[in-house]
Amino acid sequence: MTGLTADLVVDGREPQTPALAPNGRLLGYVLAPISRAGDHLDTELWLVDTDGVASRRATADTATESRPRWSADSQTLFFLSDRTERGTPQLHRLTLADGTVTTCTSWSGGVIDHLPLSDPDLVALLAEDEPTERDARRARDRDDAIVVGEREPRTQLRLLDLRTGQVVSPQGFADRHVVEVRQRPDGGPLAVLTWASADNDHGPRTNQLHLFDPTSETAENLGPVAVDARSLAWWPGDDGWHLGYVALTPPLLQAGTAVFDLAVESRVLRNRTAGLSMCPTELCQTDTAPLAVFADGLNTTVARLDHTDLTTLSHHPGRLDNLTATPTGDTIAVRTGARYEPPNVHIGAPTGPLRRVTHTRPELDGITFGTQQPLAYRAVDGLDLDGLLVLPVGRNASEGPFPLVTIVHGGPYDRYADRCQLFWFPSAQWLAAAGYAVFLPNPRGGQGHGHEFAASVAGRVGQQEWTDILTGIDLLIAEGVADPDRLGIAGWSHGGFMSAWAIGQTDRFRAALVGAGIVDWGMLAATGDNGQFEAALGGSTGWSGIGPHPHDAVSPISFASQIRTPVLIVHGAEDTNVPLGQAVYLHRALRHFDVEHEFVTYPREGHAIRERHHQLDLLRRTRAWFDRWLQPPAGRTPVDGSPS
């Protein structure tokens, strides 16, 4: 039986963005590698016959292909590809009748997104302005001073006439940044979602909805919508057309999504998911009532958003996303997996069951994974919590205690679902293969348990969510699963924050991994991509007066003098979400206090690590770090050639 290696983890390919043809007979999807070996991520466009399991590659080029979308008659599949000029995607169309692929655009800046319209000759495009002669001259002369607010790139709505190849840029959006477009199912106007600018810190707070008539090229502003609105969907009601979207529940800026229902004629807006104990993640438009996906504890629920009710259709283990449906809503396709099976495309009725129609990682079929089981327990204040426990490969709980690594999820508005826990970042099955038990907690502040649960950590990060995690660890110690003398903690992003926070609060952990983690909330609010969101989490900003500031009390750097745990710090050098300065700050503090640590930066990487050799290094380095501090002095035989 083959053992799990780092190469097996990062060299796989997974399906993305399935697109179901309106007639339900074919499905297109993108097959993407987990890691990038060169300068570009080479992806492939594939087709599946939905009445069987036969898959075939639709194109043969070496390119980055993405965003498959079908024409209304199911005869043409539109997609983006940079086959002509790498790094510059253009719209292409695959004609099923003869299998030919045609390039539809030559937009110099590239196309960002597209939507085939009910008029078979029109496609809506999202693209930035093409460079002008003056821009080219300034670039040649290096007259390239950047003035914030001036000439900032904004994505605009364009209309492509397939008969002539002409692209026109309608007016009516006041130079706003267009982020999403959805046409009414009857072929009527487009719903257009815009931001005031492309600045991710500012833009999502300035959402506005518009109606656009592609025939007359006129626009109507429907006014502002909730923060971080996305996933537009139309449906007809007794009182006219409704337009729905998923957004943050006011006044929150960092968590707690809801489905909002706007009656277009009356402008009456309703929160359709208030009071639910699950959290909406996406909407899928049909001709009648949209389908909604909900994070529901460790699992997922699919429901239909009827005019007055929310009707539950099916429950699914683990995580389900990328929902696509036929116009009738009778057939859906999704990306989902299982505890010991990575994500694949599944098809079926929205009421279930769903059958798998892709099998993109056969190399994992012979791998034995660690037993994964759900956990349910209560916080110290009685709040119901859940999480996952993954045991060492080939072991059961009665054979404990084991060295235990707790991996905290990011967000914090994310969750662990009961799915296969194998990823390029330090993950449960990767450590279970090396003899570790792994605890994956879902503390308050995350997704899957309703609005109040999600909203509870705003301005109070590291408080009750930290005791929620500790309670789970203590439970595993009491049950004989975890060795109290061999505890480790790890996390990425907000999980990295929790790891850094933990070792400033206690010396119970023998080793820690801080991946792309936050150590100073005030600095993150000032420099990160999502400053206002981070300020809501940390509770204040540096410009809130001379202090003391609330964010200082919840920033791990404030407790650096108390850290004694050996720390592995890893960070992408080009991370703009959580900038590298956060890791440098922690490194300098640990060096100042003479704390054993290792600081690793990955060149060219952002918040996620993409390059193959960097992913391999991260996996091997992580396991070696925990082996060094948590395994018995005699050590063990390293797996996958990892240093020990």
Structure commentary:
- It is built from 11 helices and 36 strands.
- By secondary structure, the chain is an alpha+beta fold.
- Among the domains are: 77 residues, no CATH class; 263 residues, 3-Layer(aba) Sandwich (Rossmann fold).
- An 8-stranded mixed beta sheet has the order 29-30-32-31-33-34-35-36, sandwiched between helices.
- Helix 7 runs antiparallel to helix 8.
- The longest helix is centred in the C-terminal third of the chain and has 19 residues.
Low-confidence stretches: 634-644
Distinct helical segment count: 11
Q: What is the CATH class designation of one domain?
A: Alpha Beta
Please describe the biggest sheet, giving its number of strands, its sense, and whether it closes into a barrel.
8 strands, mixed
Structural class: alpha+beta
Indicate the radius of gyration in whole angstroms.
25 Å
Global geometry: globular
What is the secondary structure topology, with strand pairs?
Layout: H1 6-10, E1 13-20, E2 26-33, E3 44-49, E4 55-57, E5 65-70, E6 76-81, E7 90-95, E8 100-103, E9 113-116, E10 122-128, H2 133-141, E11 155-161, E12 167-168, E13 177-183, E14 190-195, E15 208-213, E16 218-224, E17 230-237, E18 240-248, E19 257-263, E20 268-271, E21 279-284, E22 291-296, E23 299-305, E24 310-316, E25 320-325, E26 332-338, E27 341-348, E28 354-356, E29 372-378, E30 384-390, E31 402-408, H3 428-432, E32 437-442, H4 451-455, H5 464-478, E33 482-492, H6 494-505, E34 511-515, H7 521-527, H8 531-538, H9 550-553, E35 567-572, H10 581-592, E36 597-602, H11 612-630
